[in-house]
Amino acid sequence: MREFTAFATRFHKLKRDLQDIEESQYARLLQQERALQLQWQQLEDLSREARGRMKEAASVLLVQSYVSYQEAIETRKAHLEREWAALQGDVHAQQGKLRDAYVEQEKWSRISQDARMEDRVERMRKLQVEADDEALKRFKRTDV
């Protein structure tokens, strides 16, 4: 019986040692789990912050792009306004030349028309003189 009691005592002691080991391992695993959960939470927080920063950076880039686009539009607008002013100056100059050419053409048209009229009047006078001479010749023939 003594052997049985010694065996039972050893068995009980081993059981208690195993239980202590299991409890300490369980406590250690529980501590590791908590540490992992904390790390996971920190990673989540960092990830959220990184996403926020990325959104912020994208917003900043978008604003910078928009500002750059606006500056390019303003530059193009100024360039087009200068071109428009130059073209308007060219148009005014061309209109002036056209006006001068029209006045010159009208002047030469009048001169040409006057010359044709003078030529026509001169021909009519000649025809009248010839007709008068012919009539005078006929009149003289009838008088005789």
Key traits:
mainly alpha
Record the SSE blueprint.
Blueprint (H helix, E strand, L loop, with lengths): L1 H142 L1
| Structural Rg | 60 Å
Assess the beta-strand content as a share of residues.
under 5%
Q: What ranges have pLDDT less than 50 throughout 5 or more consecutive residues? A: none
Order of helices and strands: H
Task: Count every helix, treating DSSP H or I runs of 4 or more residues as helices.
Answer: 1
Shape descriptor? rod-shaped
How far apart are the termini? 203 Å
Number of strands: 0
Report the biggest beta sheet as strand number plus sense, adding barrel if it closes.
none
Task: Write a compact overview of the structure shown.
With 144 residues, the protein is mainly α.
Please provide a written account of the structure:
The chain is mostly helical. The chain has one helix and no strands. The protein has one helix at 2-143. The longest helix is centred in the middle third of the chain and has 142 residues, at 2-143. The relative contact order is 0.02. The mean pLDDT is 91.
